[in-house]
Amino acid sequence: QVSLLEAGGGLVQAGGSLTLSCAASGRTFSMYAMGWFRQAPGLEREFVGRIGRTGIVRWYADSVKGRFTISRDNAKDTVYLQMNSLKPEDTAIYYCASGPDTYRGSYSAASNYDYWGQGTQVTVSS
Description:
0% of the residues lie in helices and 50% in strands. The chain has strands at residues 3-7, 10-13, 18-25, 32-39, 46-51, 58-60, 68-73, 78-83, 92-100, 115-116, 120-125. Strands 2, 4, 5, 6, 9, 10 and 11 form a seven-stranded mixed sheet that branches.
């Protein structure tokens, strides 16, 4: 059974940084792309970023480009989301997801992922 476990959320002041991690188990981590999504209260879940299985190709939402960095360590079955210059509008529950390395349609579509973590709360105070 595939399991994804996020960690690293918390409360941070605007302008600060946090690094989220997501530890995967249950299937060969290096064969799958990983994604990060977030959902703020009252809003729909939105794409944050995606990293291909080798870690070479990455995609980001425009709202986080230049501030957030996705990376992965296939030896540790873990994907990371380094978040810098955080803004209050980054406040959300952050989810990691795992899916096939070849995406269908848009790389930002949640339908490209078949397993999801439980999420970790990130709160940015102004």
